[in-house]
Design goal:
Layout lengths: L1 H12 L27 E3 L4 H14 L3 E7 L2 E7 L7 H4 L11 H4 L3 H20 L7 E7 L5 E5 L22 H6 L19 E2 L1 H9 L3 E5 L3 H6 L6 E2 L2 H5 L11 E5 L4 H10 L6 E3 L8
Parallel strand pairs: 1-2, 6-10, 7-8, 7-9, 9-10
Antiparallel strand pairs: 2-3, 3-4, 4-5
Amino acid sequence: PKTECLAAFLRDRVPGIQIESIPSFFHAGIGGQALSDYSIILDCTDLIAAKCAISDAAIEAHRPLVTASVYRTSAQIALFSGSGNPCYRCLYPDIEAVSLASCSDVGVLAVQTALAGTYQASLAIRFLLNPDTIHTDRNYQLEWESMQIYETRIQGRKNCTACGVDAAGKRQSDRPSEASKLAPGSKAQSALRNNAGQSMHVTWEQVRSWASEGRLHLVDVREFDEIQENPIVDAQHFPLSRIRNGLSPERRADAILVLVCETGQRSMEAAIQLSSGGPAHSILGGRRALA
């Protein structure tokens, strides 16, 4: 198991270190009691179901959480307080409606995993040393091509099922659907699907087809400085930072909403958040896949 391999590596590097290895899947039924003995939680998983379960457990245990993820050449890191508001589900409120492609399906750039892990560890250390000097409502996006870090503020959601005003007394981890996704021997579904059962991932070829039929509503969710450098023709600009703040572009009733960013990660986040208002799609590979 990965946990045993990592434990052996760390014991070899740091003699005397105390490590508790639990070689099992983290699922929704575990709950916060499993995390209550620790000062801070670092989520290094690559499955959305696991990330949601860990976030819920961290809130239940009132423990701060540092989460990191990598998609192709993009990395995201965020630190949340143990009380939520915001929490991981505030950042991705409708994430359970879809099944995300795994690392083996889309691939990741190894150097980004190293950078994401480094920043994740740095945030954890900073929080432990002086928690009052670090934000717990920020999402950091690290792009490989631009070599820049984009920082956006995460808004807490009053209706969040994990930390919102109506979440008291409820345990998001009680849902069997999450546990079943992480049952031993199961696989993460490789196809990303929306509530209508249609694929949320689309290619530029499909986008061109919709455009030729006059049915395309293309929205670029990159920030202003990015579109200035590499504009996408015929795309409406509506940055992800506005979508995270609860805003949404006006939809065309007769058109198919397609989101695009630099690599496909931010557009997928936007598609997930906007899917509550109707079908939304994300271009696989983003602008870089345009050829």
